Each structure stands twice: as structure tokens, then as C-alpha cells.
């Protein structure tokens, strides 16, 4: 088979290049696309990337082309980053002015000539507004009043003095150093207890780590006066984490007052709106805490000053009252003394006269009583001597009679004792039983075979018990 006519690949590419040049020469297009696979050659100031379009119902890519920006286009991208605070990087949606290029070696590409700053800002703002609307609609503890957001967190009343602070910040970040330096080197000598909770504070994909850090602060069991979220600045994309729905919701509901010092000057993040207090930088957050404590100290100093002034006023007023009272007392005392002096003189004279009369009457009564006393002891003594004589005679009579009676009683008791003595009872035919040299009257202590002593009036029998029977008691039945 005869070979067909062929051309070199470079010739074909040149034909494609010529066709595209003829078709798109001098034409530019505004294109909406997402940025992927971005890289930047700083020495040449050239951006390399891909422009992609995703499906409206899924994230599948429906179109893709290589892109680059250099020269004027690269300068416009730098202006875009300065104006928006957003880095030109992956995963941002942009509106760019492009021209179509084709190179026989590198293929088809688009050159970015310009970028619409307002378009990107609008996309970010739309996303932010949608998140804020969702926060209000889905959470009862977030309410929008005018342009303000009322949250559970910003309704917390700050403690009079903030001393224990938990800080969520990037590890070894300049913002954290600024915050610590400002707090620890304040002009008023305030002392703070600062606990660091280091975390990644950039990138929306790190939201879960940030939430875990908030939970760690809450679960620490420490009674923090405030939680401070700091970051030392950066590109706008670095702050997307602070527009995250879940983080905004957690801050709005957090039971400890949250103070933000995130460090972005252009916009206010959702976390700023949900937090108790929003400041622009970590340094400003520290200054806010110091100013809060200073305000409390000034109130105390003002109160102390007012107390001193009021005390001095009260002292002066009461001192004047006391002086006036002292003067009145002195004057009234002199008047009273003068008025009662004459009365005392009259009472003194009456007392002297009355005392003389009373003494005379008492003297007469004492003389009469003295005569009575001197005669009565003789009569009393005579009567007592007679009483004693009668008592002695009665004692003699009653003693003799008592002794005779007792002697009769003793004779009776003596006869009874002799009749009941063991010797007399043994003579009447009774006996005493002893076992083991012990007198017993109970048969329970004697068993058959025991040796016992039977004592009569004049004889002792030693005998062995052969039989033990119950006695009916007829021999002694009288």
C-alpha cells in the first residue's frame, strides 16, 4: 500500500497556532473560573496555574485549561492581593481577563491580563452573609438587632478584674508574643495568669482542630476570666477559618467571655461578631484587658477618695455639733449647780437639825432598853437553872426504868439462845451431818458411797452411805 502523504508534528502545531492566532488575534475574554495547581516563580514574577469550571450540582470538573500571568498580568494580581487581602492561590473563584495563546511546544493556554477585584470580594461577602444568616436562623442564642448580633457570649458580664486568661493562638506566633509582652509589661503592675492553647489558626479546613481547642479550654476545669483568640495578621484567605459556621456558633454559645485580636484591619470576621469583645490586633486585645482592670481600679480609688471626703465632712459636721453640745452642757451645768447650791444649803441645815432631834430620841430609847436588859438576864438565868434541875431528875428516873426493862429483855434472849443451842438440840435426839469436814443440810451434796460424819450429843459416827431415799417427814410432824 502506498504510504499517504504526511507532515511533521511541528508543522501541524504551527497550523493550529496559525488558526488560533487568526481566530483569537486581538480578542480578550472575561472568564469566571476556580484556581488550582497554583505556583509562583518569585525570581521571574510569573504565576502558573490551572483555570477550572465545576458543575453546578457537583464538584466535578467540566472544563480545564492551563493559565499563566506575567508582566502586566502579574502586577494586576499583586494589586488584587493588596486590595482584597486575599492571596491569589488555590480554591478561590475569580473573574479574570484572558487572552488565548498557543505554543507549539507548551500547547494551549490562557494568559491572565487583569482580574476583577470586586467579583472576588463579592463572592467572599456572599459566603460570609450566608453563614451569618444561617447562624441567626438555626440558633436561638444568636439574634440580629439592626447591624448588631446579640449572642450568649457577648451578653456575659465581664468580671470586675480579668486575671486568668486562656489564649488560643498559633504556636510561637508574633501575635502571641505581642499579647504577652503588652500584658506582662503593663504600666500599672497588674499580674496575669496566662495559659497558652496553641493551635493552627488559619485555613478553613482546620476548623475542627480549632473547635477541639475551645472544648479543651472549657474542659480544663479552670475558672478563666476570659478566652483570647489572637493572630498576628496575614492574607485574607488565612482568616477564612474565622468565618466558619461551626466556629462562629461555638464562640457565640461559649460560657466564658471571648475577646478577639485576630489582626486583620480590613474586615470584621464572623467570630468577631459572635464574640464578647472584638479588637483589631493581639496588642489591642491586651490593652483592652489592661484598660478594663484599670477602670475597676479607678472606680475603687474614686470610691476611696469619696469615702475620705465624706468622712472628713461628717467628722467636721459632728465636731461642730459636739462643740455646740459641749458649750450647752457647760452652761446648763453651771446653772444647775447654782440653782441647787441654795437647796443643798437648806437641806444641809435641815439635816443637822433633824439629826440632833433623832439622836436625842434614840438616846432616851437606848437608856430605857439598857435598864430592861440589865434586869432580864437574872430572871432568865434563874428559870434556866430550874429547867436544868428538872431535866437531871427526869434523866435519873427514866434511866433506871430503861435499864430494868433491858435487863428483862436480855434474860429472855439468853433463855431462847440456850434452848436453840446445838448442844441442847443434840440432846433431844437430833444429829449433825458433815461431809469433807463441812456441815451440810442438803442431800444434794451427798451421794451413795460417800463417807460422812454423823455427830450425836456424845458420839461421832463415820459411816458410808449405802442407800439414799426420799424422807416423808412424819417423825417430825407435830
UniProtKB/TrEMBL annotation:
<dbReference type="GO" id="GO:0006308">
    <property type="term" value="P:DNA catabolic process"/>
</dbReference>
<dbReference type="InterPro" id="IPR020579">
    <property type="entry name" value="Exonuc_VII_lsu_C"/>
</dbReference>
<dbReference type="GO" id="GO:0003676">
    <property type="term" value="F:nucleic acid binding"/>
</dbReference>
<keyword id="KW-0540">Nuclease</keyword>
<keyword id="KW-0378">Hydrolase</keyword>
<feature type="domain" description="Exonuclease VII large subunit C-terminal">
    <location>
        <begin position="150"/>
        <end position="461"/>
    </location>
</feature>
<dbReference type="Pfam" id="PF02601">
    <property type="entry name" value="Exonuc_VII_L"/>
</dbReference>
<comment type="similarity">
    <text>Belongs to the XseA family.</text>
</comment>
<dbReference type="GO" id="GO:0009318">
    <property type="term" value="C:exodeoxyribonuclease VII complex"/>
</dbReference>
<dbReference type="InterPro" id="IPR003753">
    <property type="entry name" value="Exonuc_VII_L"/>
</dbReference>
<dbReference type="Pfam" id="PF13742">
    <property type="entry name" value="tRNA_anti_2"/>
</dbReference>
<dbReference type="GO" id="GO:0008855">
    <property type="term" value="F:exodeoxyribonuclease VII activity"/>
</dbReference>
<dbReference type="GO" id="GO:0005737">
    <property type="term" value="C:cytoplasm"/>
</dbReference>
<protein>
    <recommendedName>
        <fullName>Exodeoxyribonuclease 7 large subunit</fullName>
        <ecNumber>3.1.11.6</ecNumber>
    </recommendedName>
</protein>
<dbReference type="InterPro" id="IPR025824">
    <property type="entry name" value="OB-fold_nuc-bd_dom"/>
</dbReference>
<feature type="domain" description="OB-fold nucleic acid binding">
    <location>
        <begin position="8"/>
        <end position="115"/>
    </location>
</feature>
<keyword id="KW-0963">Cytoplasm</keyword>
<keyword id="KW-0269">Exonuclease</keyword>
Amino acid at each position: 500500500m502506498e504510504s499517504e502523504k504526511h507532515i511533521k508534528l511541528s508543522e501541524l502545531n504551527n497550523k493550529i497556532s496559525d488558526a488560533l492566532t487568526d481566530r483569537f488575534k486581538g480578542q480578550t475574554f472575561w472568564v469566571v473560573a476556580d484556581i488550582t495547581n497554583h505556583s509562583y516563580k518569585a525570581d521571574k514574577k510569573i504565576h502558573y496555574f490551572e483555570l477550572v469550571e465545576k458543575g453546578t450540582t457537583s464538584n466535578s470538573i467540566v472544563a480545564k485549561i492551563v493559565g499563566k500571568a506575567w508582566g502586566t498580568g502579574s502586577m494586576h494580581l499583586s494589586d488584587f492581593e493588596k486590595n482584597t487581602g486575599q492571596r491569589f492561590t488555590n480554591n478561590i473563584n475569580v473573574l479574570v481577563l484572558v487572552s488565548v495563546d498557543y505554543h507549539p511546544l507548551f500547547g494551549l493556554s490562557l494568559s491572565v491580563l487583569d482580574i476583577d477585584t470586586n467579583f472576588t470580594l463579592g463572592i467572599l461577602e456572599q459566603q460570609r452573609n450566608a453563614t451569618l444568616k444561617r447562624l441567626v436562623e438555626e440558633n436561638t442564642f444568636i439574634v440580629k438587632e439592626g447591624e448588631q448580633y446579640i449572642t450568649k457570649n457577648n451578653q456575659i458580664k465581664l468580671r470586675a478584674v480579668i486575671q486568668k486568661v486562656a489564649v488560643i493562638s498559633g504556636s510561637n506566633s508574633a501575635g502571641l508574643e505581642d499579647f504577652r509582652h503588652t500584658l506582662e509589661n503593663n504600666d500599672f503592675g497588674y499580674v496575669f495568669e496566662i495559659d497558652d492553647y496553641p493551635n493552627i489558626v488559619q485555613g478553613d479546613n482546620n476548623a475542627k482542630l480549632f473547635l477541639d481547642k475551645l472544648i479543651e479550654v472549657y474542659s480544663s476545669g479552670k475558672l478563666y476570666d476570659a478566652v483570647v483568640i489572637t493572630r498576628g495578621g496575614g492574607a485574607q484567605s488565612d482568616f477564612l477559618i474565622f468565618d466558619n459556621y461551626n466556629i462562629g456558633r461555638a464562640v457565640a454559645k461559649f460560657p466564658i467571655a471571648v475577646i478577639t485580636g485576630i489582626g486583620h484591619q480590613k474586615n470584621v470576621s464572623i467570630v468577631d461578631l459572635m464574640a464578647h469583645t472584638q479588637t483589631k490586633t493581639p496588642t489591642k486585645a491586651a490593652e483592652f484587658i489592661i484598660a478594663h482592670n484599670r477602670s475597676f481600679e479607678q472606680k475603687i480609688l474614686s470610691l476611696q477618695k469619696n469615702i475620705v471626703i465624706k468622712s472628713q465632712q461628717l467628722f467636721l459636721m459632728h465636731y461642730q455639733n459636739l462643740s455646740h453640745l459641749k458649750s450647752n452642757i457647760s452652761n446648763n451645768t453651771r446653772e444647775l449647780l447654782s440653782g441647787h447650791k441654795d437647796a443643798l444649803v437648806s437641806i444641809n441645815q435641815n439635816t443637822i437639825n433633824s439629826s440632833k432631834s433623832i439622836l436625842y430620841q434614840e438616846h432616851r430609847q437606848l437608856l430605857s432598853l439598857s435598864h430592861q436588859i440589865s434586869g432580864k438576864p437574872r430572871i432568865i438565868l434563874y428559870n434556866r437553872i430550874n429547867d436544868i434541875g428538872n431535866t437531871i431528875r427526869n434523866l435519873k428516873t427514866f434511866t433506871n426504868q430503861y435499864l430494868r426493862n433491858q435487863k428483862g429483855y436480855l434474860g429472855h434472849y439468853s433463855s431462847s439462845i440456850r434452848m436453840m443451842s446445838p448442844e441442847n438440840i443434840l440432846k433431844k435426839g437430833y444429829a449433825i451431818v458433815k461431809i469433807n469436814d463441812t456441815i451440810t443440810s442438803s442431800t444434794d451434796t451427798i451421794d451413795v458411797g460417800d463417807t460422812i460424819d454423823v455427830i450425836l450429843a456424845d458420839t461421832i459416827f463415820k459411816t458410808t452411805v449405802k442407800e439414799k431415799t426420799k424422807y416423808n417427814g412424819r417423825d417430825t410432824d407435830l
